[in-house]
Amino acid sequence: MKKPSAHDDSPLSKPPGARPASSVIVDRETVELKRLEKRIGKIHLRQRLGIEADHATQVFGHGRTFFHIENWYSIHSLIRLGLRCLGLYRRGIRNATAIQIRHNEVIVPNLPDALHDFTLLHLSDLHLDMDSGYPTALIERLRQVRYDVCVMTGDFRAKTHGPHEAAIEALAQVRPHLRGPIYAILGNHDSIRMVPGIEALGIGVLLNESAILERGGAFIHLAGIDDPHFFQVDNFEKAAQNIPPEAIAILLSHSPEPYRLAAHTGFDLMLSGHTHGGQICLPGGVALMTNADCPRRFCRGAWRYHHMQGYTSLGSGSSVVGVRFNCPPEITLHHLRARPAQ
Predict the structure, then answer these.
(1) Regarding the domain delimited by 69-337, which CATH topology (the fold level of the hierarchy) does it fall under?
(2) Is the dihedral of CA 278, 261, 147, 164 positive or negative?
(3) Mean pLDDT for the stretch of residues 35-59
(4) Which end of the chain is more exposed for a tag (fewer CB within 10 A), N or C?
(5) Residues 6 or more apart from 160 whose CB is under 8 A from it?
(6) Does position 247 have pLDDT exceeding 70, yes or no?
(7) What residues are paired with 151 via a beta bridge?
């Protein structure tokens, strides 16, 4: 924090008794963090803030994977330079804003009639402050879809540390184009300090918490865990504590990595992101890197583990370098049905 100068403290520079703007901001953040502490518990908040401070830019070690390419900023420039030399950079930039609309059918045999074709819009890995064109491209696609509830599986910010105001401002541009209830979780790029700003936009953030979705007197329990990839502050016991054993339950997890825990907790569906499907892939969508400590079959698209169905979004935005090859960005509509559509 900048130390006020003598001129800043002079009677002529501000009204008597006025406090520096920085103090007001700090006090507001302190109040917001106190509210979060009361809501999610002192331990969770202290762990999240502590790990953010200690390891935000760590390239090797910590988390579920040893190597964190998103934190290695010097290599980002080398990747861009290499793509420019190959004449591929501009094409990759265009690909990154060519967002596709994907549909995924989820068969839930015990689904009540009132919930037939209940549709969730799934947005993930927005990284909205990565490029000024991202919000506009996303808004264009959002105008073309219909759904009941919107869920967002983390990574609103491009970098993994530092200021987050630009990401919140970009999200504020998108928010008027989202309808119905909206729920989100945090990713490994997001600070828990972003929660008040996100929720001020009318987006509920689930921090190892759950909510109830209702239509026609029937219910779906929606749970969200905090980032399981880098921060590893996911808590299934807290997230599922208010969900009845036989209820239809959906889990939001930034990464698909804790798929085993999710299945054995009793969730019917797990929605994730984080991997970007590889983002830069060989022809056929073969990922060069997934950045996730789990089998590749869980790292893109629809999958199943025991009774639980899952879907890992390719992401709506891009990370590290704002390009895509053989792996287009997406927004996904998950249609819940008791039986396959005819």
Answers:
(1) Purple Acid Phosphatase; chain A, domain 2 (3.60.21)
(2) negative
(3) 87
(4) C
(5) 56, 57, 68, 70, 71, 188, 189, 230
(6) yes
(7) 122, 183
Looking at the predicted structure, is the pLDDT value of residue 134 above 90? yes
pLDDT digit string, tens, across residues 271-325 = 999 999 999 999 999 999 888 999 999 999 999 999 999 999 999 999 889 999 9
Q: Which two tokens stand for residue 339?
A: 């039986």
| Greater pLDDT, 169 or 3 | 169
Q: Residue 234 has which token pair? A: 């996911």
Could you state, in order of their start, the residue ranges of all structural domains in the chain? 69-337
Looking at residue 296, the DSSP 8-state letter turns out to be G
- Report whether 225 contacts 267 (CB < 8 A): no
Strand partners, 150: 121, 182
Q: Which amino acid is at 188?
A: N
Model confidence, pTM: 0.88
Helix (H, G, I), strand (E, B) or coil at 116: coil
> How far apart are alpha carbons 187 and 291 in whole angstroms?
13
In the chain the beta strands, taken as DSSP E runs, fall at 100-107, 118-123, 149-153, 182-185, 204-205, 209-215, 218-224, 249-252, 269-272, 281-282, 286-287, 301-305, 308-312, 330-337
